[in-house]
């Protein structure tokens, strides 16, 4: 008789406690975006004994609100706190997970039908310490333009999260949770270009960002040590940024 794999054994062990801990048929999947070295990244987990990767996710405890569950899952995977979190979609296809779990027992908690609520998170890359869970061997950042093959419908969830982020970029500010406290205008522009997937005119970008009145120009430029003029440094004005998040912009990209 063939012995179960380590992954199956871990699933079955987690399943036994899940029936008592969590609300049935509701799951949470999180798309965590970070900005590092001029590239936009997403946090992924690689399942044990599997070639596929997946989004950080989990289930809602019986006495837990949905958003609380998402915050808990993200804190466990990133070690970060006060994360910008946005609910963006519900994924309820009839057989969204059937293929992945087809070789596992029907009594497995994870094999039941789940409706997943998607959240995207914006985090400071430097403050995240990726942590694998008991079902995964690796938790790591991946460039959004070079994603590995994802399990179940996680590619669809990722695509919807990125599309939502792009749409919201047209009327809300983005950057406070992704950039370091001090940054240059070219760094901010690069972030916008990566999210939007297109080049932006440098002059127009500068005028729009200044016109939004959410930036503070710092007195001292960044010290480069080279012959070129050091770039000006900026930071977000937190109060005006929060107001823009609530009220939105009149002009998009």
UniProtKB/TrEMBL annotation:
<dbReference type="InterPro" id="IPR036388">
    <property type="entry name" value="WH-like_DNA-bd_sf"/>
</dbReference>
<dbReference type="InterPro" id="IPR036390">
    <property type="entry name" value="WH_DNA-bd_sf"/>
</dbReference>
<dbReference type="Pfam" id="PF21906">
    <property type="entry name" value="WHD_NrtR"/>
</dbReference>
<dbReference type="InterPro" id="IPR054105">
    <property type="entry name" value="WHD_NrtR"/>
</dbReference>
<dbReference type="Pfam" id="PF00293">
    <property type="entry name" value="NUDIX"/>
</dbReference>
<dbReference type="InterPro" id="IPR000086">
    <property type="entry name" value="NUDIX_hydrolase_dom"/>
</dbReference>
<dbReference type="InterPro" id="IPR015797">
    <property type="entry name" value="NUDIX_hydrolase-like_dom_sf"/>
</dbReference>
<keyword id="KW-0378">Hydrolase</keyword>
<protein>
    <submittedName>
        <fullName>NUDIX hydrolase</fullName>
    </submittedName>
</protein>
<feature type="domain" description="Nudix hydrolase">
    <location>
        <begin position="23"/>
        <end position="164"/>
    </location>
</feature>
<dbReference type="GO" id="GO:0016787">
    <property type="term" value="F:hydrolase activity"/>
</dbReference>
